[in-house]
């Protein structure tokens, strides 16, 4: 029992830190740790991870909101389609072989970490302001074109929400990484605003995914559930405060390092444990 509690705590803190720092889903950490190290059923582990994601994402979103690093209005379109496809993904996940779900989560953890280190998100608030200034200048001359751009942005947000929501419900990854890429690269958000908006959306998608999983598969291990929820919340609260004061370079390095270490640890246990 003591060993299990230690793993729950490490998984929760690691997940919370990743959520608070870069808007990643807690499930990207908790799911593979519970399945790989403790042998949890993958579907049950995803349910616990998504439940942990709810409060962690909510407290992170509140912290980013207080620091004015969140865009609630423009995230609502993505939120609606994300919620719908989270429920769909959650149902389909119950039909997939459990080993496939668990293995995929393990490899994704390591790949996410490498992605942050090798190819970090490089947008800054200053870059975003320049882009917005140029767009406003063009829009003042061509109003029709501006309306088309705005419509295309809504469409992109809706489609992105479908993809992110499906990933959240199906593999329990919350779609955090994909959402971060979409918000910065496609919709032009600065890094911190993207993270703030991402955790805002994930607080709802995680709730939908967790509810769907628990309705279908039950509450599962109560001790694991409570421990992961509490430690993830604590980690996210501390990390989000740090993230709002840190530079984007530091955020990428720290988050990437955490994910690579955890991913490598789980792979070592999987193949040599």
UniProtKB/TrEMBL annotation:
It is found in: Cell membrane; Membrane. Keywords: Cell membrane, Membrane, Transmembrane, Transmembrane helix. It is a multi-pass membrane protein. The chain crosses the membrane at residues 43-64, 76-96, 158-183, 195-216, 222-239, 251-272. The keyword Transmembrane helix applies. Its main location: membrane. InterPro entries: TM_pro_TauE-like, TSUP/Inactive_protease-like. Signal peptide: none annotated. Belongs to the 4-toluene sulfonate uptake permease (TSUP) (TC 2.A.102) family. This is Probable membrane transporter protein. The lineage of its organism: Bacteria, Bacillati, Bacillota, Clostridia, Peptostreptococcales.
């Amino acid at each position: 029992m003591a060993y299990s509690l230690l793993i729950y705590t490490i998984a929760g803190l690691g997940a919370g830190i990743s959520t608070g720092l870069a808007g990643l889903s807690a499930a990207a950490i908790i799911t593979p740790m519970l399945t790989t190290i403790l042998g949890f059923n993958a579907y049950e582990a995803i349910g616990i991870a998504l439940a942990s994601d709810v409060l962690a994402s909510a407290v992170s979103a509140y912290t980013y909101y207080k620091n004015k690093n969140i865009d609630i209005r423009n995230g609502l379109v993505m939120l609606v389609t994300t919620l719908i496809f989270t429920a769909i993904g959650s149902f389909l996940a119950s039909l997939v072989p459990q080993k496939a779900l668990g293995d995929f989560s393990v490899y994704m953890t390591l790949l996410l970490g490498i992605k942050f280190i090798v190819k970090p998100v490089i947008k800054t608030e200053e870059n975003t302001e320049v882009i917005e200034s140029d767009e406003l200048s063009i829009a003042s001359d061509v109003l029709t074109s501006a309306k088309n751009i705005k419509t295309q942005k809504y469409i992109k947000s809706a489609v992105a929400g479908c993809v992110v929501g499906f990933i959240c419900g199906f593999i329990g990854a919350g779609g955090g990484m994909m959402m971060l890429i979409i918000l910065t690269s496609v919709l032009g958000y600065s890094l911190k605003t993207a993270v703030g908006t991402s955790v805002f959306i994930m607080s709802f998608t995680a709730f939908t995914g967790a509810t769907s999983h628990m309705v279908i598969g039950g509450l599962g291990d109560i001790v694991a559930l409570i421990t992961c929820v509490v430690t993830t919340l604590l980690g996210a609260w501390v990390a989000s405060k740090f993230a709002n004061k840190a530079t984007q370079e530091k955020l990428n390095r720290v988050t990437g390092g955490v994910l690579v270490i955890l991913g490598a640890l789980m792979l070592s246990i999987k193949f040599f444990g």
